[in-house]
Amino acid sequence: MSLTVHPGPGPRGTVTPPGDKSITHRALLLGLISGESVRVVGGNPGADCAATRSCAEALGATARFEDGAWHMLGGTLREPAGPLDCGNSGTTLRLLAGVLAGQPFRSQLFGDASLLRRPVDRVIAPLRLMGATLTASAGDRLPPLSITGAKLRGIEYQLPVASAQVASCLLFAGMFAEGRTCVRVPGPARDHTERMLRAAGVVLEWEDLAGGAREVAVVGPCRAHGLEVAVPGDFSSAAFFLAAAAATPGARVRASSVGLNPSRTGLLDVLEAMGAEVERGALREAAGEPVGGVTVTGPDRLRPFDIPAGWLPRLIDEVPAWAIAATAASGTSRLSGAGELRVKESDRLELIASNLLRLGIVARAAGDTLEISGGRPEGG
Ligand code: S3P
């Protein structure tokens, strides 16, 4: 397939992104475990969330689409008839691993070629400490991930990386464990699971620590109530349009009804630091999540900016969008401490740099660093 793009005037207008993918995954899993109906309104329509839904069905939940919403009903999980296909979705695999570790049966999680290259040792280690038996390929590093569930015990665990997927995995496991499971997240990773569990009546201890770190604990075994989750628009989808506006003098894009959870909106802070005008509208709350409108206006001249390493978890999925803005800045922008981006669905550092190079833009990925020199592309 080929797609030809012609230069045009800067973008102006409003985008209403599809439902947030991360929140949709969590709402579907809540429906799998809660025992009361969970209604997911405006859920993300993509293949990743469909994978979570079909895994939930294979584990005994019923999923019904009615009046524009998914109605999930689960409660007691049953042993699946075969391996659970997570498709391309690392979130499905890692979050579900936490649920499955606490079930009295065996299961196996696998996915597509890209998912089979993504690390699972980060969930195996703590879930083993909780008492489950887990094995995986390549010396227990890569999927397929086989789980023999057990009566879990609570643990205290310091995550080596600020990963929301791992934190969420352990909080789900903690709901099935005996005693207190305490997770220390070393940076400002997204906190959707914590917010949703609280909205569903689960008691969490939650302490914010210096540098955006947090400590969250749940005492198990415990159950979540049913809930209606009005899924906010996906900030990660809106990010490309907002970055395009920042990159073009005079362009102006508004994203409406978008999730503005501060653990997701690091890109806005970066665009502001580069000189773009960012207006955040009034916020309302949906299932514990802040939702609102945000408008970005492109300045006459965008400044380059070095993203501090501690900011990365708040824009972990928006770095490709930031890279577009960085190409329009007058100088070199840098991101460091970003090794995590090499173990996503693709090696994002390498692919951003190589695709920008193909467009005539000076970009370099080395180790955990990405450097982009902005300006006009050759022949542009
Ligand atoms: C996600 C967490 C992030 C993110 C991923 C979705 C989530 O991954 O990159 O796209 O929904 O919890 P990590 O937790 O591994 O950083």
Helical proportion? 25-40%
* Shape assignment: globular
Class by helix and strand content?
alpha+beta
Question: How many strands appear in the DSSP assignment?
Answer: 21
Rg from alpha-carbon coordinates: 21 Å
Structural features, described:
This protein is an alpha+beta fold and 380 residues long. It is 29% helix and 27% strand. The protein contains 11 helices and 21 strands. It has helices at residues 21-34, 47-58, 90-101, 121-129, 137-140, 164-175, 192-199, 235-246, 266-273, 319-327, 348-358; strands spanning 12-15, 38-41, 62-66, 69-73, 84-85, 106-110, 133-136, 142-148, 156-158, 179-185, 204-208, 214-220, 227-230, 252-259, 277-280, 284-286, 289-297, 306-307, 332-335, 362-366, 369-373. The strands form 5 sheets. Strands 1, 14, 15, 16 and 17 form a 5-stranded mixed sheet that branches. Strands 3-4-2-13 form a 4-stranded mixed sheet, covered by helices on one side. The two termini are 23 Å apart. The model has no long low-confidence stretch (mean pLDDT 96). The protein binds shikimate-3-phosphate.
